[in-house]
Amino acid sequence: MNIILLGLPGAGKGTQAKIIVEHLHIPHISTGDLFRKAAQERTALGLKAKAYMDTGELVPDEITIGIAEDRLAQSDCKEGFLLDGFPRNLNQAHALKSYLAASGKAIDHVIYVKVDERLLFERLTGRRVCSGCGATYHIAYQPQAVEGRCNSCGGVVIQRDDDQADTVAERLNINKALTDQLADHYKTEGSLRVIDGSKEIGDVTEQLLKIFAAP
């Protein structure tokens, strides 16, 4: 089964991706992991991607597409895959469709884990991280026993720059525009499946598994 997973930052895509790949026995292909692996292996495209990442720039579509296609050509993707973070825009979506069509394949499901932006803003700005061991907390959902201190190592718990209100708002706005375009595109193609990501993790998983169980 060939799947694309869509969702804004904080929607819980990573948690559900792990469950999907274990359930369907397919590889989880994350764009970030692809870039890092290609850079570590010093492939031509990987080195080009690294040059952009090192300066904080977005990796151009042609490089992203090339790296993704190289990964999809590997043998473990023969029976299916879960794409997370690719395609990011319509240009990449069209390239993916053409690549798959060349071998008689297509995307079976595009799953959009949808969560209201106000809830996402609360989830992201409330995150806290231990500067010592990296343990994660949330001021509302998973607070520390002693405020400002890690339960595990006693280290100082901080709010990362990425979780500051202004940064979160900008990330959500940019990602929403891109995700909405992709969702509209795949809705037109008939492959979009929208699930409510605001529910408890188990409830979200139940919605996902119903999609895969459907005839």
UniProtKB/TrEMBL annotation:
It catalyses: AMP + ATP = 2 ADP. It is an enzyme of class 2 (transferase). Transmembrane segments: none annotated. Pathway: Purine metabolism; AMP biosynthesis via salvage pathway; AMP from ADP: step 1/1. Its EC number is 2.7.4.3. Keywords: ATP-binding, Cytoplasm, Kinase, Metal-binding, Nucleotide biosynthesis, Nucleotide-binding, Transferase, Zinc. CDD domains: ADK. ATP binds at residues 10-15, 127, 136-137, 199. PROSITE patterns: ADENYLATE_KINASE. Residues 127-162 form the Adenylate kinase active site lid domain. InterPro entries: Adenyl_kin_sub, Adenylat/UMP-CMP_kin, Adenylat_kinase_CS, Adenylate_kinase_lid-dom. Zn(2+) binds at residues 130, 133, 150, 153. Monomer. Belongs to the adenylate kinase family. Catalyzes the reversible transfer of the terminal phosphate group between ATP and AMP. Plays an important role in cellular energy homeostasis and in adenine nucleotide metabolism. This is Adenylate kinase.
